[in-house]
Amino acid sequence: MTDAREKGFVVVGKSERKVDGIALVTGKPKFVADLDLPETLHVKILGSSHAHARIIEIDTSRAEALPCVACVLTHKNTPPARYTTAGQGYPEPSPYDTRMFDTKVRFVGDRVAAVAAETDAIALKALKLIDVHYEELPPVLSIDEALVNGAPVIHDESDATGIYDASRNTAADIDITAGDLTQGFAESDVVVETTCETQYVQHTPIEPHVTLSYLDEDGRLILRTSTQVPFHVRRIVSQVLGLPLHRIRVIKPRIGGGFGSKQEVLLEDLAGLVTLRTGRPALIELSRKEEFIAARTRHPMRIRVKLGAKRDGTLNAIEMEALSNTGAYGSHGLTVLSNVGSKTLPIYNKAQNVHFFGKAVYTSLPVAGAYRGYGATQGYFPLEVAMDELAERLKLDPIELRRRNHIRSGESSPIFEKLGEGREGVAQTIKSCELGRCIEIGAKRIGWSKKRGKRMRDGSWVHGVGMSVHMQGSGIALIDMGAATIKMNEDGSFNLLVGATDLGTGSDTILGQIAAEVLGVPLSKIIVTSSDTDVTPFDVGAYASSTTYVSGMAVQRAANKVREQIVKVAAGLLEEDEDSLALAEERVKASSGQSVTLAKVCQHAMYQSGQFQIIASASCVPEESPPPFMASFAEVAVDTETGFVKVLNYVAAVDCGVAINPKMAQGQVEGSIVNGLGYALTEEMLISSKGRVRNPSLFDYKILGSRDIPPIEVILVESYEPTGPMGAKSVGEVAINAPVPTIANAVYDAVGVRLTCTPFTPEKVLAAIDAATPGDL
Amino acid sequence: MRITLTVNEAKREVEIEPGETLLELLRREGYKGVKKGCGSGDCGACAVLLDGRAVNSCLVLAAKADGREVVTVEGLALWSKSHSRYSTGRAKGDELHPIQRAFVEEGAIQCGYCTPGMVIAAVDLLTHNSSPSEAQIREGISGNLCRCTGYVKQIEAIKTAAKRMGEGADD
Questions:
Q1: Does the CA dihedral A647-A649-A655-A660 come out positive or negative?
Q2: CB B106 to CB A663 under 8 A?
Q3: Cis-peptide into A398, omega within 30 deg
Q4: What percent of chain B has pLDDT over 90?
Q5: What residues in B contact A673, CB-CB < 8 Å?
């Protein structure tokens, strides 16, 4: 194994402190709403009270007449262009099925009107003065209702584009095959089939969506916004408002978490239009309730997995069928559906016969979108539960079954080429994979051989252990792009300009570390500026586990170019061969022992002879998407009297290549696991028979708190990814896929019931225990 | 109505609106380290010290702060210096409260939005219990939600800070 230390890295591989840590811990005004601008208008949105209705008439005259109301927006006075809120590369693989304000509403909370006023209170009062006359239409409240013959058509508008089959409420459809499935199953000795269902959940960043817009001195529109995708925001707002792109500047300050929900353009168009209409700054902050009702969610799915294996455990055939509920709009519908298969099936590449198919279906329910894990989270649930079941049928240790089937370094999977994100994928061979060691180390740490199958009892509590394995990707091959510019200053410091978007992940720090490593300086000499469309080069933004791998590679390339310029100047100064020079400790050192400070090199280049700015830019479009791997283990205790599942211990062994910053990499895994545990155990948006979210608060929607978490041990099992910057792969998403199947499998080990529907609430677990033969316990 | 209160060691006389919360008042007065995450006391992002105890400022009417002392995350370092129990050798002259320093060093900050409230809760905890058990730490920050870190490194940071502050007091 090659690790960071063996590579001789100085800054990379060290848990450097976050570059913005001190500002954040002292409460400096770094977030969107921390900037007070004079004359700011406060914008409030009127959400639909019906799940599915046509707006026959809107009368805004009473609201407009209210003193201190600056403007009221509805479908009558806003641009009608259809677009997608999905902040993806262009052209987006999501349908253009959304309007700023439409004549039809498709879920409870859908935009009907907006008011900009001097204060929040006045805006809210004005909303109540808007009279809306609806023609109610029958709501569509589940995947099955949406697909039934003669179901109400949710997108019956004529101007939407990119919908697979609007008449059948189908936003997207995928069907791919590798090998021969029929033959694959026919030649299998054992076949198991599992169907799992997942619930509506939300990202709940602690900072809800927020945008502040204003005009600069030259009348350009400035959007200071909490986004993961500043460049996509600029493009989409330009498209929606018909404003030339060069008249828009998007600035992402610090943002209070995103997890995918801020890969959506939900407010920027509205704030921007208010500013353009009034000339005044406009602030929109979603309330927590609005965030729950009208922001984005994880696609609820029903997924069926059928596995066929030889008697020795070798997988022969995998069939996966996914039905995804994309809610009222098709944002990320196709690509999340793609990833249900593309990020899961290759892990078992021994199966040569694979069929993946599915649909993303419109309903008149809250809108789904990007959410950390992006479909893989849903896909791994049935896949890993089915693997557990297969192991049992084959009388094999589940660990052994994984060992016999998981992908390894030097191997490939036909799925990489067959299935990309909404289109064909890109063939690739795995170049780094320590999944085998992850399994081995994780099993040891959880005490697998001592605890598995023992059903240790403690009163009414029964203990069990479960495991699952996972992969994700690192960016989207041949689609994503990141760029970086590095500029040298005469004190030997550097400005690093990146379009990459730090949403709390620490990417500013990590990208700074990569630059510092190449340039032979401490991190403190790298001044990182990110995510300002006027200042920084393009980057697609923070999604698809791309930043370290894609943007990081752009930084490494830019730093190498700057390094070459420095070496050239230094070679002249020192009268040495360029080949004999190395950058370290803020100096250029020759093998002869001579050296010169970086500050001196830059001063020479700036002021003395052959003057020029030492500066370079570079881009990265990844040719592949190397997966990080993970083995996940949990020990649980199940109360057979109440059905309560208590997680006693969690172990995650993760191969993310070289961890540029180990503490931050661990932090990504820890946060993902806790989010995933909430998904497994407590989180669920409850929806009424009229389509209304019944628990839109952090009191009624339970995300885990500090008392709810088990001890979590994260082990970084380092590999070296030759295509990544300094050997790195991604780490931001992979671990969120793990808790659901890991807990389900641990509960089975404890009490012998298969949980196939999240969240695993005491009610459901108890019902499953009761349904099982009492003699089994 | 007008109220008088001390914010971060400075006496302030401010005009407040009927029904205005302490959160709204503080943010309006420029204390942007006080964050709004829910407005209903569920997330703890808006926590401040009111007469030395952590409260969710979104649940306190501004009028209730009349005549009282408020400390926000911006004023922690200053406040800790003027309180003898934190005037330890280690903390003196430091720009950061030991808890803030530990949060930075232990990687306990990701997006940073819950951080001010979490730090305030930890200060309350360690003020009243200088060597808490892990269970007590978990209890102490249980009113503060974090979606990024999974709490692991935050708990570690509070342990580190408690240890350092304890050592400092023994010096």
A1: positive
A2: yes
A3: no
A4: 85
A5: 150
Q: Give the distance from residue A12's alpha carbon to the nearest chain B alpha carbon, in angstroms.
A: 16
Look at residue A699 and tell me if it is in a domain: no
A229 and A113 co-located in one domain: yes
Residues of chain B with CATH 1.10.150.120: 75-170
Are A256 and A402 found together in one domain? no
Instruction: List beta partners, residue A221.
Output: A215, A248
In a domain, A574, yes or no: yes
Angstrom distances, CA of residue B154 to CA of A14, B36, B118, B140 = 19, 20, 8, 12
Domain boundary among A620, A648, A668: A620
Structure tokens at A302: 């029903």
Question: What are all long-range contacts of B132-137, with beta carbons under 8 Å and residues at least 24 apart?
Answer: B132/B158, B132/B162, B134/B159, B137/A706, B137/B162
Whether the CB of A27 is below 8 Å from some CB of chain B: the reply is yes
| Domain identity same for A598 and A514 | yes
The mean pLDDT of A381-392, rounded to a whole number, is 98
At B87, the pLDDT band (50, 70, 90 cuts) reads: very low
Cβ distance of A699 and B42 shorter than 8 Å: yes
A324 reaches B (C-beta below 8 A): no
Each residue's pLDDT tens digit, A81-118: 999 999 999 999 999 999 999 999 999 999 999 999 99
Instruction: Examine the pLDDT at A319 and tell me if it is beyond 80.
Output: yes
Residues of B in contact with A208 (CB under 8 A): 37
Which of residues 16 through 55 in chain B touch A, CB cutoff 8 A?
30-40, 42-43, 45
Whether residues A86 and A168 fall in one domain: no
Distance from CA of B30 to the nearest CA of A (A): 8
Interface contact flag, A206 B104, Cβ < 8 Å: no
A248's CB contacts (< 8 A; 6+ apart) are: A220, A221, A223, A234, A237, A238, A272, A533
Candidates A203, A210, A298, A706, partner chain B, best to mutate (most B CBs within 10 A): A706
Give percent of chain A above pLDDT 70.
99
Residue A632 lies in a domain: no
Tell me, yes or no, if A682 comes closer than 8 A to chain B by beta carbon: no
Structural domain range at position A234? 32-137+204-294
Q: Residue A476 pLDDT more than 90?
A: yes
The larger pLDDT score, comparing residue A278 to residue B93, is at A278
- State residue A630 phi and psi, 5-degree precision: -155, 140
E strands within A248-328? 248-251, 282-285, 297-298, 301-309, 315-327
Select from 3.40.630.10, 1.10.150.120, 1.10.10.10, 2.40.10.330 the CATH code of B75-170: 1.10.150.120
CATH number at residue A124: 3.90.1170.50
pLDDT (tens digit, 9 = 90+) per residue, A320-373? Answer: 999 999 999 999 999 999 999 999 999 999 999 999 999 999 999 999 999 999
Q: Which residues pair with A474 in a beta bridge?
A: none
Q: Under CATH, which number does the domain B2-72 receive?
A: 3.10.20.30
**A192/A233 same-domain check:** no
Q: Which residue has the tokens 């239409």?
A: A137
- For residue B108, the chain A residue with the least C-alpha distance is A667
3-state secondary structure of A114: strand
d(CA A582, CA A592): 11
**Per-residue pLDDT tens over the stretch A171-220:** 999 999 999 999 999 999 999 999 999 999 999 999 999 999 999 999 99
pLDDT in tens, A721-772: 999 999 999 999 999 999 999 999 999 999 999 999 999 999 999 999 999 8
What average pLDDT score do residues A375-386 get?
98
Domain boundary at A259, A294, A329, which?
A: A294
Among A25, A120, A204, A695, most B C-beta atoms within 10 A, so best to mutate, is A25
User: What CATH number corresponds to the domain at position A542?
Assistant: 3.30.365.10
Domain(s) labelled CATH 3.10.20.30 in chain B stretch across 2-72
Tell me: pLDDT of A775 over 50. Answer: yes
